[in-house]
Each structure stands twice: as structure tokens, then as C-alpha cells.
Amino acid sequence: MNEPTAPARRPGGRTAEVRRRVLAATRDLLVERGFDALGIDAVAERCGVHRTTVYRRWHDVGGLLADVLAQAAGDDWTPPDTGSLAGDLVALNREVHSALTTGPPITGALIAASFRSARAAEALRAFWDDRYARCAVIVERAARRAEIPGRTDPRRLLVAATAPLYHELVLLRAPFTAGQAETAAHDTAAGARAGAFTVPGPA
Amino acid sequence: MNEPTAPARRPGGRTAEVRRRVLAATRDLLVERGFDALGIDAVAERCGVHRTTVYRRWHDVGGLLADVLAQAAGDDWTPPDTGSLAGDLVALNREVHSALTTGPPITGALIAASFRSARAAEALRAFWDDRYARCAVIVERAARRAEIPGRTDPRRLLVAATAPLYHELVLLRAPFTAGQAETAAHDTAAGARAGAFTVPGPA
């Protein structure tokens, strides 16, 4: 995406720049003032892009939120690769814990918005499905290293490792430390080594 | 709570009857029309109780939702007792799966409402904390039967068993069958038997 002929401009040109500004304003407004404050007019005013431009491309709040998540899913994120299943899951859970507890609470705000907008809900599911698919390599590498059975189901294992963080922090709004997130990773790795998360059939 | 001297009346007398009607109307409106349709006036009209009565006792939507959850928490529910850890967790996850997928979607609606009302969020957390505390006996019985180590943490194990259901069905809105819920229970039991969910120290 780099444009070496226009070094002073950000990559992607004017359309990409407008998108960046509009989505940044959407995220900022969502975090600062919540779903009810979101609207084409508020976003346009915040980022200095003409409301007609925002309306034409994103249509409504659902379109804005879906594109925030599509932008997040479109990055080149790769899962941690530490050399062991437990190490990879600990690093992954540290990332999830950090996303849920530090900095602007955009993840929590997007989850809350998914209960208000069907398009945001669809986009959030697509985002998570993509992340879990990318993380399957963690489980596949562990199976190749013979840490766990070859017929271990990646999604079941990955959801088991990460779901307690969302459950405690997002749904129960309970205190849940980074240490507890690491413990959840170790619990899941221990279960996987003992044959949990396997599918029937020959190894 | 039975009142044998007044067999024609429901237990608890008129105050309890008003509460039952008001909370039933709150649940019905929440499920049918969502959080935005909830209000003292709408609830009062729905159940035929004077709005002043509703206002005086519950104050606002947060008060109504908190009492719906307090009423649910005040039941005499006890966790399943099937004779094995896996059996108890399977039965528990069947209950959670059923609550999330069949009948009026009151659980999902209350979770959604918890993102709109701080009082509903607090009450939801108290409800879940109470349920997990009641379920600790599942883990304690399994430890007494020597199925799992004696220093297994009940809450960690119980959240590991149930969190995937909330994650897939409520947050990701992904298809997740009763069979998958049972598999999550078996995965957790297998991990616990292998020593996951233990706390440091002597057994």
C-alpha cells in the first residue's frame, strides 16, 4: 500500500485518508460518548469531512461501526509464536486482557454497540472468526511439536482460553487481572495436553 | 411461603402479587420491544398497576431490571448432582444452553440491557456470582470423590465450562448446538482431571 511517488502523503491517497479520519472519529465518539451519541452528522463534524461524503459511503451508524471492525480485521496481525502452546496462549491472553483493560475501551464499546446494531454484530463476529482462524496455527504448531494430540480442535481450544476473559471483564464486569488471564491460558494448555478439545477419530 | 389460610390467593399477599405482575411486564416488554421501550409508564400500563406505585417502589428502568434479576437470584435453584463432574457440568451447560436458545430470550435481553444500565449490570454480576457460588459444590463433590485434585478452584473451573456458551451465543452470535455445549463441559472436566484449575500449595 505504500506510494513511493508521494512520500509526503499517507499511504492510500485521499480516499484512504478520508476513511481513516472518519473511522477514527467514529471510534473516538463511541468511546467518549457512547452509541447514542453516534450519528453521521456528529462523525462528520468531528473529523471535518462533509456529511454528504460520510452519508454516501457509510449510510448510517451500522455502516460506520462495521467499517471500524473491517479496518481492524484488515491488519497484518499474526498470533504470538513463542515455541510452546502455553507460551503462545499466555501471550495471546495478555493481548486480549490489555485490549479489554487499558487505553481507550474501544473493544468494550464495540461489543456494547453490537447489541444495538445488527451490522456491528455481524462485523464483530466476522472480526472474531478471522482472529480465531489466524490463531489456529498456534494449535497446529503445538500438534506438530507433539505437545497435544493431532486431532485437537483449534477453535474449541482457543475459545476455551480466551472466553473467560470476555466473560469476567465484559459480561460480569468483574475484576480479572493479567495474572488471572495467564492462568486461564495455562489451564487451557494443561487440558489440551491431557487430550481435551480433541475430535473423534484416528490421531 | 405458602399461606394455607388464604388458599385462593397466591403466596405472599398483595405486595408480592404486585411485584410479580410488574416484573413479568418488565421482562415481557424487554423481550418483545427491547430496552428502549422500557419505562415506568409502559410497564405500569402493561400490567395494570398504577404508575405511582411502580415509580415509588422501583424508581426507574434500572430499578426494574435490578429487581428482575434479584427475583431470579432469589429462587431455590440448586446445581445438578449426577454423581460425576462431567455429568454435573454437562447438565449445567444444558441448562445454560437452553436458557440462551429456547423460549423468550430473557437472558440475552438482560445481558444486552446490562450495557445500558449500570444497575442492571451490577444486578447481573450479583446474579452470576451467586450462581457460580452455588455451583461450587459441583467441584467440591468431585474433589471429595477424588476425581480431581483437592485444591481445584471452583470458580475458574465453572467459568471455563460455561464461558464458551456465552462467548459463542451471546457475543459472537454464532451457531452453537446443545452438543457443543456438552462438549465444552467434557473438555473442562478432562482438564480438571489432569490438574488444570488448581491453586498452588499442598493438596
UniProtKB/TrEMBL annotation, chains A, B:
* Keyword RNA-binding among UniProt keywords: no
Would you say which domain of life the source belongs to? Bacteria
Q: Annotated DNA-binding ranges?
A: 39-58
Provide the alphabetized UniProt keywords: DNA-binding, Transcription, Transcription regulation
Question: What single Pfam family name could you report for this chain, choosing any that match?
Answer: TetR_C_11
Keyword check for Phosphoprotein, yes or no.
no
Residue ranges of every copy of the HTH tetR-type domain listed in the record: 16-76
Q: Write out the GO MF terms.
A: DNA-binding transcription factor activity; transcription cis-regulatory region binding
Output the InterPro entries linked to this UniProt entry: Homeodomain-like_sf, HTH-type_TetR-like_transc_reg, HTH_TetR, Tet_transcr_reg_TetR-rel_C_sf, TetR_C
Q: Which PANTHER family match?
A: HTH-TYPE TRANSCRIPTIONAL REGULATOR RUTR (PTHR30055), TETR-FAMILY TRANSCRIPTIONAL REGULATOR (PTHR30055:SF148)
Q: What is this protein called?
A: TetR family transcriptional regulator
